[in-house]
Amino acid sequence: MPRGRNKSCHFCANENKKIDYKDLRTLNRYLTDRGKIMPRRVTGNCSKHQKLITKAVKRARSVALLPYVKE
């Protein structure tokens, strides 16, 4: 069975990069075209940073910076 390359966590590689709910450009990278949060196996993030991304996306949605569903 062929295997893809190992994905590394973007935030572990760049120590100076922070996850913030106001940084919409970064958060949009982890959303599908329908507005769903991409899973960890697709993005390649570690579990720590994936949880922080999920929390930031949900916070941005509640403050109405991001839509719940994209049309």
TrEMBL record:
Function of the molecule: Binds as a heterodimer with protein bS6 to the central domain of the 16S rRNA, where it helps stabilize the platform of the 30S subunit.
Pfam entry (one): Ribosomal_S18
Species for this entry: Halanaerobium praevalens (strain ATCC 33744 / DSM 2228 / GSL)
The family this protein is said to belong to: Belongs to the bacterial ribosomal protein bS18 family.
SUPFAM superfamilies: Ribosomal protein S18
Assembly mode: Part of the 30S ribosomal subunit. Forms a tight heterodimer with protein bS6.
HAMAP family, sorted: Ribosomal_bS18 (MF_00270)
One cellular-component annotation, GO: cytosolic small ribosomal subunit
Example GO biological process: translation
Keywords for this protein: Ribonucleoprotein, Ribosomal protein, RNA-binding, rRNA-binding
GO MF annotations in UniProt: small ribosomal subunit rRNA binding; structural constituent of ribosome
Protein name, UniProt field: Small ribosomal subunit protein bS18
InterPro entries per the UniProt record, alphabetical: Ribosomal_bS18, Ribosomal_bS18_CS, Ribosomal_bS18_sf
Keyword Ubl conjugation annotated: no
